[in-house]
Amino acid sequence: MAEKSFKYVIIGGGVSAGYAAREFANQGVKKGELAIITKEAVAPYERPALSKGYLFPEGAARLPGFHTCVGSGGEKLLPEWYAGKGITLFLSTDIVKADLASKTLVSAAGDTFKYESLIIATGSTVLRLTDFGVQGADSKNILYLREIDDADKLVETIKAKKNGKVVIVGGGYIGLELSAVMKLNNLDVTMVYPEPWCMPRLFTADIAAFYEEYYKNKGVKIIKGTVAVGFNSNDNGEVKEVKLKDGRVLEADIVVVGVGARPLTTLFKGQVEEDKGGIKADAFFKTSVANVYAVGDVATFPMKMYNDIRRVEHVDHARKSAEQAVKAIFASEQGKTIEEYDYLPMFYSRSFNLSWQFYGDNVGDAVIFGDNSPKSDNPKFGSYWIKDGKVVGAFLEGGSPDENKAIAKVARVQPAADSLDVLAKEGLAFASKI
Question: Known EC number(s) (predicted)?
Fold first, then answer.
């Protein structure tokens, strides 16, 4: 089989790959030096679109509309852009072996790729109920959402099961975003999750109460405190019922599962140092192996602000870590230095007419402020988290761009806060003073 050699190789074709490619171009990569290898059949795209605009019943987003780097207000990098920059895209190419010692990757087809510097941008894969041996979890129309092929299957199934019943398993990002978009498709939606409230890793009970009531007002049914333990199917092998641990049985024409993800690090096991489920990297995303970098979901890196190390699964970090790694590669080659990665955690989501942003750390005591009535025409509310007398995190629903910038600044600066009551009364005014 063929052997191909490149100075730089990016393995993975998600968000990080697209932003890394743009930074390579900005740094003056020469034609023929860079290759991106991805098992997906399309050039890198903004993955968040899949759980939002891609599934809209009208005016749905489609490629090439959301190729990277349009998600952060940049130029869309169409396949022609890569060709024009002399960047080689190997699409539908699944790497099955990586030998970091010999700087070699091997594809399922037997092709060999040699490199001088490697960026690991393999991202995550969804956790599947079949992985846990859940009875009937291999029935047809039990679906997941990670890649564009998954989204296409969802679109087809929504059309085939018009006005049908959907059960969403999971109450995190995917659960909330898909419950909303399924409702927009006029489906009967039930969301099931084991926790006492939705988005428990980020939301407080007060924040979650707003979203749960808002969703109920939109017609989404919510069942908390239990899990799916099995599925029944019809004669065609299609799911027809979801069996819950509490004994209830739900009718379902479609089931969508969003119960988490795991970073794709298997190719590199035993070859590179790992920590907290990811590949250990420094503030420049260098790994323990020379000339190998890890970015996005797979990287466990120093969180300078909090003096600890973390792994972050979010598109904002996927973009920024990719750019940092490429800058570090060129700085290293040129004998220069760049600033350490100093990441402010940022998460966001959009559903129905809602849009929230969160910055910082959700630790310590939390206080809620503003109009958090689910019946409001334009709800706008937020929360601050206070630890050791400082505001360390800030959340805002319904904020303007300037207001979102203000809460980001609060989380970065970590101003002193004397009283939860005062913060609750001041609300956004506190952020605007910082």
Answer: 1.6.5.4
Please answer whether residues 3 and 114 qualify as being in contact, where contact means their C-beta atoms are separated by less than 8 angstroms.
yes
Could you tell me what percentage of the chain is helix, strand and coil, using 3-state DSSP and rounding each to the nearest 5? 30, 30, 40
Residue where one domain finishes, among candidates 259, 276, 292: 259
- Tokens at 293, concatenated: 């970098």
Q: What is the largest CA-CA distance in the chain?
A: 69
Using the structure block, give the residue that is written with the tokens 């059960």: 167
Q: What is the DSSP string of 302-349?
A: EEGGGTEEEE--SHHHHHHHHHHHHHHHHHHHHT---PPP----EEEE
**CA–CA separation, 16 and 361 (whole Å):** 23
C-alpha–C-alpha distance, residues 60 and 163, integer Å? 18
- Is there a single domain that holds both residue 149 and residue 232? yes
| CA pair distance 82, 285, nearest whole angstrom | 24
In this predicted model, what pLDDT tens digit does every residue of 209-239 receive, in sequence order?
A: 999 999 999 999 999 999 999 999 999 999 9
pTM: 0.96
Task: Give me the count of residues in the chain.
Answer: 434
Q: Read off the pLDDT of residues 88-136 as tens digits, 9 standing for 90 and up.
A: 999 999 999 999 999 999 999 999 999 999 999 999 999 999 999 999 9
Same domain, 49 and 80: yes
Number of other residues whose CB lies within 10 A of the CB of residue 25? 18
423 in any annotated domain: yes
**Phi/psi of residue 186, nearest 5 degrees:** 65, 35
